[in-house]
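Title: Prediction job returns without error message
Component: structure pipeline
Severity: low
Priority: P3
Assignee: unassigned

Description:
Job completed but the reporter wants confirmation the result is attached to the right record. Sequence as submitted:
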Amino acid sequence: MKNYISDSFKNIATIFWILIAVILWYQVQNHVTLEEAILITTFLFLAILLVNTYISVFLLPKALKEKKMNTFWICFILSILVQASVMAILLLGFNRLEELSFFPSSSLFSREDSFWSNFKNQIPASIIINLAFVGLRFYHEHIKLEKAHLEFLLHSLQMQINPHFMFNVLNHIHYFVKQKDDMASVLLLNYSDILRYQLYSGKKATVTIQEEVDFLKKYINIESIRWEDKIDINCTWEIEDFEKRVSPLLLIPLIENAFKHVSRCSDRKGYISVIFKQKDDMINLEVENSKSSNPIQKKFGIGLGLENLKSRLNIIYSNKHSLSIDETDIVYNSKLLIQI
């Protein structure tokens, strides 16, 4: 995304410079010879380019970084005066060359032209051109800062995923080890894969559907071991293209939420249903779990997973997702639709 922002800025700036060159050429080409028109356009363009580059590429970013905008505006005004002076001198020089018959006399200049008259004429153009580029650079820096903030926020949200799950798994590994159960080894291997995925793949912008689904399956496998035969778990995976890409760790909160709130009644089994479908550019995840007739007392932090998910969806898939949650006294159902 950073490259995209930089490329967009460069493309817009290039268009601006082409327009400036065309305008300069249009102003002189009907009044002087072709050779003189090329030279006047080139020298004026270079004068504008050098001063503008100094203002927008060097002065402004430095002022923004050091928060010295008052100093910047003083330097901006001085740079405008310098640019107008250089352009006035260039025009006066070409006028003199025509008087010396180095170039044929033209209607572009007159004997009344002076440094001060040229200088005053160039001030408005200098202000407009440089303000336009300063505005463009301001916008560019704002977008960069906004993107950096979103990336930081997104990373922070990703780091919040499953902290309690880690401790639950470690407790179960400890339990199985004490029982000298082979399940401890299976649980540990699956958990190490999950932890590795969260630490490394979780930092990527996108992962393949294959990687994300494998992660979800390992997570569900660990939970099924932990719950043993106390709940029924049914999963359906319909995937058209395993190489399609999606943001990592985006789907796990709904599944995690189901295991967190599934019914724990001793008289009947609870259930969790996971249906994952990917077709074309659409991902559809539906997760449903049974609820206990006796509500679990809410603790601090419950609900943060879903809020985390909503925040990440709004950042990554702003207008390309739909999340609906239906809850009754006995069933909790969530549906997530994403256009990738």
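Comment from assignee: result matches the submitted record. DSSP finds nine helices and seven strands in the chain.
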